[in-house]
Amino acid sequence: MLKSFRCSINFDYNWVLSKRNDDVLPIERVLTAIKTKYNIESIDTDLTGCVFDVDAGDNITKDAVFSDILALIRTMYEDSYSEKVCNINIEVNEKQEKVELIPAVEDKNSGKTNDSKHTPENKSKKSQNSVSNNPSAVEMINNLVGADEFKALANECVRLAPHLKESDTLDAFLRRKYIISINDGCGLTEYLNLFGKLLSELDLFKCDEATPVREVKLLSDSGTKNENDSFSVVLSSIETKSRSRIICVDISEWMTQTTDKRFRDFLKAVEANAEQNIVFFRIPFVETNILSEVKSSINDFLFVKELSIVPFTMEQLCEGAERILKNRNFTIDEQAMEIFKKRIIEEKSDGKFYGMNTVNKVISELLYMKQCYNADNDIFDKDIKAPQIGRLSSTGSEKYVSAIDKLNSLTGMEKIKQRIIEIVSQIEASLHNEELDTPCIHMRFVGNPGTGKTTVARILGEILKEKGILRNGNFFEYGGRDFCGRYVGETAPKTAAMCRDAYGSVLFIDEAYSLYRDDSSHDYGREAIDTLIAEMENHRSDFMVIMAGYPYEMDYLMKANPGLKSRMPYQIEFPNYTREELYAMFISLTEKSFIIDEELKSAVHKYFEELDEYLIQSKEFSNARFVRNLYERTWGKAVLRTQLSGEKCEKLMVEDFILASSESEFQTNTQVKATRIGFN
Given 3.40.50.2000, 1.10.8.60, 2.30.30.210, 2.40.50.870, which CATH number is that of 579-675? Predict the structure, then answer.
């Protein structure tokens, strides 16, 4: 049992209204001051009051807490404070350690709870932890993954509902609007529907049954033919008297224009219909100061509460996936879950990830693969195992090969391999020497496209995992501009979230130089770099940032931002491949899957020997990518040949290669010579 004091503060409603022109509500101001003196938790707040717990440490008495709170309020509002203004109540609170309750899952086929353990102890626990077959809205909300502030709002509504109806102050609740800061795919629609269900169950607000929720977007001038069109469309939803709904207005494109007369006229129109609908203003997940600025502007006309929904962590995404599978009576083992994680990492790597929407898509693929396996093996179980879904991730079904062996198997790169081993040994030695500072393990990979930067970075992460230097060794790959947000205040939290995902792993940033554009003082790339620098310093040995790009552009980026260069002590240069290395790479690719003869090898060798030197040394040459494209085109010609003859495609012929290499994109010699500038 833990001892604490349960405190409640309630201000007079009319007195609170007299302070409506203040920057913050009295209860918010008082709570901020209390937090500077006491460790408090379990906060539930509303317009006029709050309830919270104060940890009862040594020498802290109930009377002392009461006196301190009263003194704070008197000091803040000495010009208007009286005994009638505020009621403070403090009681000793004996509370249990917090336990997360996991709802039992009903077996859809049998109608019974799916639980194979039937000991008396388990039955007792199951009885305590299970929820009803028709859970209430607040139960559903409290069972959500993440969304702490939304859960607090729901519980506040439950606590206030009887008081609002008893005191005939429901209008005060209905006039309150909400600003919700949330990214795509983080559950906005679900939250809105659950909130409508909650208000209906509490008899606070009845939504239209046909369309309880309406989501609309307020477009900027550039998005409409007539600047008034978007405002008119949105207001038509809000001003409809025939139905009451939860209306969510996406104002992302107006975040920096909240002082514009048209936007303020729009807020006045919303205020004129304040009790008709419950209105949410939606913006992306942004920095706290930006959210406060938007709230302050809207607060000029409307009584608003802000909610900030933090993007899902990898752990929360996995928890959500397991819940979805469990609700369908599927189980997934640890190895299969690792494949799911790898797929989610791959989904994140293009900079376009949509939270639980993407998770649901991946789960659909996973379940389909499982059923294909079941059908092929004539089984009907619901136990998902790694071998059954290996194709879900591009690396999910790979056989284990040590990272060092992977590095050694790469064609060429002898100097790079040696440099990698030296750096890893240096980092390893630093970590095991208590007299040395914690090493900074971030790096720069400099070279032209296709020179192996991404491949080596991926293997390096695995090496550091095997050495115990990185906890996870996963690989997150992004382009430089993927870190930039679309709106003011979005870049920093977006960049921080991407770094957070990569803790214990490798964060690989290709074309990193695209973050810096010195022709624009308002470019979000600068903000991304500043956030990256802070993350790289604060987690200097917990994750590895590798920035990659062309030599000249990367050098320019480092000179433009010395703080960035100082946090990336290691640089590895990736030269273009030689003709012999390109030839060896092509032959290695073909021999993995096909039979080849000396005639083909001779033709391939001749082709690479005749590649123009200017091409091989140019920054536009794609090196290994060029080789792989040529190999895949040759393979494609062989497939077509064997399909027409009805043969099995097992061997690559010299004519397949000649046809492939004759296509325009591989006939580079004449193109380069024709466009070269200068004297011969």
Answer: 1.10.8.60
Domain residue extents for the chain: 2-95, 135-308, 314-392, 403-574, 579-675
For domain 403-574, the CATH superfamily is P-loop containing nucleotide triphosphate hydrolases (3.40.50.300)
Domains 135-308 and 403-574 share a fold: yes
pLDDT value, residue 676: 39
- Distance, CA of 381 to CA of 616 (rounded, Å): 55
Q: Token pair of 71, please?
A: 């003194």
CATH class as words, domain 2-95: alpha beta
**Which phi and psi (to 5°) does residue 283 adopt?**
-135, 160
φ/ψ of 416, rounded to 5, equals -65, -45
Is residue 91 within a helix (H) or strand (E), and if so which, with residue range? Answer: strand 86-95
Q: Which whole-number Å values give the CA distances from 124 to 96, 112, 130, 134, 222, in the listed order?
A: 18, 16, 10, 21, 61
| Residue range 601-638, pLDDT digits in tens | 999 999 999 988 888 888 788 899 999 999 999 999 99
Residue with tokens 């529907």: 193
pLDDT at 428: 87
Cβ burial of 400 (10 Å; 0-12, 13-18, 19+) is exposed
Distance CA 483, CA 499 (A): 10
Shortest CA distance to 154 belongs to which of 121, 116, 192?
A: 192
Which has more pLDDT, 229 or 534?
A: 534
Q: What is the chain's alpha carbon radius of gyration, rounded to the nearest angstrom?
A: 31
Q: 27 and 49 in contact (C-beta within 8 Å)?
A: yes
> Could you tell me if 351 and 403 are in contact, meaning their C-beta atoms sit under 8 angstroms apart?
no
Percentage of the residues of the chain whose pLDDT score is greater than 70:
87
| Mean pLDDT of the 398-424 span | 89
In DSSP terms, which residues pair with 94 in a beta bridge? 3
- Residues 6 or more apart whose Cβ sits within 8 Å of residue 39: 54, 55, 57
Neighbours of 279 (CB within 10 A): 23
pLDDT in tens, 128-181: 444 446 889 999 999 998 899 999 999 999 999 999 999 999 999 999 999 999
Chain Cα centroid distance, residue 589: 36
Those residues with Cβ within 8 angstroms of residue 186's Cβ, 6 or more apart along the chain or in another chain? 285, 309, 311, 312, 355, 356
- Domain 135-308: which CATH class? alpha beta
Contact present, 220 and 254 (Cβ < 8 Å): yes
